[in-house]
Design goal:
single chain, 2 domains, Outer membrane efflux proteins (OEP), six-stranded antiparallel beta sheet, alpha+beta, elongated, 470 residues
């Protein structure tokens, strides 16, 4: 059989490999890769991450240097009242310090006395002394935007974990019916041979004629069962097609010629290793996507709390400009500070009761406390879910051992009955009864094996890493 490798998935060669002597196969890991890469939900989560990244870019805009220029002029009755020209460059920095430099030209009969007449230049700095010195709105917005990207990635992983779980569950449902259909198909062939043999022995008078009807009835029963299982197998494959999409974002219907590429359903070849619960819980607590979402929330709320704390501090702002004549900004900067040519401003403001600041800070702390309670509950739910899945997996392993022994015993009884029939010591009715019981036991065993594989997927889902292909 031709292996359905990842490059085939990317190129989606389902339509290319149509040779009759080859059959397409699909494994659990390949299905997970398809879902991760092409399912609309997965693509939507990628868009959410990209949108969050654009918010980061938007927040960085608050730190972009800004150059601006203004011009205003007034003439009345032949007199020049004023003529203002100004060009300025502002450079904001991370720590709330803003540098600025510019040139201006002021002339006219009625100019603002605070303005410097004729051509001049200036360069200065403005900053806060207490409030907003550690963090301000601009820095908080950028930091929170980066955290939203992390949160979007965690939300994407959580969505994929659930989506892949649904896909894998449907996959093993399809595999179950496929395995049952295969075995019943072989039973139909066996019954066809048995019918021909019965007709021969009836013709020579070794068996009663009623045995032909008995054999034919058994054949009809298994033909009917084969058709029913084929219908269930195909319907399960159609349901599985819900999760298979092309790179062009078009849905792809899996062909009925597709077969599962899985580990053997023979119990002696299955992996019954069950990891330790404490190890799984520890890994889940450190990397589960839903817990990663809460980690991002805490980072977000911690920045909000720091920002709200700034409202409790006095607002002290200092602005200083070095002044110079003409348009030479470098010469203006090179002059001694706080001597002949300078301008400064100092402002101070603080609410006397700090009501808004205290309320905002308390609300931020309450949000953190509420999120901590939600996190504790989520951690407990994940831990219990892992223990529950492990317990179910262990019980299924024991059940498989019992059902395997029962199936082997039924097979021995069927074989013995066939030998007795050939020796003329049994009847076709007893063989058919043994065979039906054997098939029923096989179906239960097969269903339990499929359930075991589903349960292994469910355990990985509970730990939050089912979507990861290893």
């Amino acid at each position: 059989m031709k292996r359905f490798i990842l490059i085939n998935i990317i190129l989606f060669c389902f339509n290319e490999l149509k040779a009759q002597d080859e059959r397409l196969t699909l494994s659990e890991s390949e299905l997970i890769q398809i879902v991760n890469a092409y399912h609309p939900f997965a693509l939507q989560t990628n868009i959410s991450i990209q949108q969050a990244e654009t918010d980061v870019l938007n927040a960085r805009g608050a730190f972009d240097p800004l150059i601006q220029s203004s011009f205003s002029k007034k003439e009345l009755g032949g007199s020049m009242y004023y003529n203002y020209q100004q060009t300025e460059l502002k450079i904001p920095t991370w720590y709330g310090i803003e540098f600025n430099a510019g040139i201006e030209n002021v002339s006219g009969l009625n100019t603002d006395p605070q303005k410097t007449n004729l051509a001049s230049s200036y360069a200065g700095v403005s900053f806060s002394v207490l409030k907003n010195i550690l963090i301000d709105k601009r820095r908080a917005t950028l930091q929170q935007a980066k955290i939203v990207v992390e949160q979007s990635q965690a939300e994407r992983n959580a969505i994929l974990n659930d989506l892949v779980y649904d896909a894998v569950t449907q996959y093993w449902e399809w595999v179950r019916y496929y395995r049952e259909w295969l075995i019943v198909k072989e039973v139909v062939k066996t019954n066809e041979v048995r019918l021909n043999y019965t007709k021969q022995v009836v013709t020579v008078g070794e068996r009663p004629a009623i045995d032909t009807t008995e054999a034919l009835t058994q054949l009809f029963y298994y033909q009917s069962l084969q058709n029913e299982l084929e219908m269930q197998m195909q319907n399960a494959l159609i349901q599985l097609s819900t999760y298979t999409w092309k790179p062009s974002s078009e849905p792809y219907t899996l062909p009925f010629s597709l077969t599962p590429s899985t580990s053997s359903f023979a119990t002696n070849e299955m992996d019954f290793m069950i990891p330790a619960s404490e190890e799984l819980i520890r890994d889940a607590m450190s990397s589960h996507p839903e817990l990663e979402i809460y980690k991002s929330k805490f980072k977000f709320l911690d920045i909000e709390k720091k920002l709200k704390f700034q409202e409790l501090l006095p607002d002290v702002k200092i602005k200083y400009n070095q002044l110079g004549k003409n348009y030479s900004v470098p010469e203006t900067i090179a002059q001694p500070l706080l001597q002949n040519n300078y301008q400064y401003a100092l402002s101070f403001a603080v609410p006397l009761r700090l009501s808004q600041g205290r309320a905002g800070y308390k609300q931020a702390k309450l949000k953190i406390t509420s999120t901590e309670l939600q996190l504790d509950l989520k951690q407990r739910m994940i831990e219990n879910k892992i223990r529950e899945q492990l317990n179910t997996l262990s019980m299924l392993r024991n059940q498989l051992n019992i059902q395997e022994n029962l199936y082997q015993s039924q097979a021995i009884l069927l074989k013995g009955e066939e030998i007795r029939f050939q020796n003329g010591e049994s009847s076709l009715f007893l063989i058919n009864s043994r065979e039906q019981k054997n098939i029923e036991t096989f179906q239960k065993l097969n269903a339990t094996i499929a359930k075991y594989y589903k349960q292994k997927a469910s355990l990985k889902w509970a730990t939050g890493n089912l979507y990861i292909v290893k």
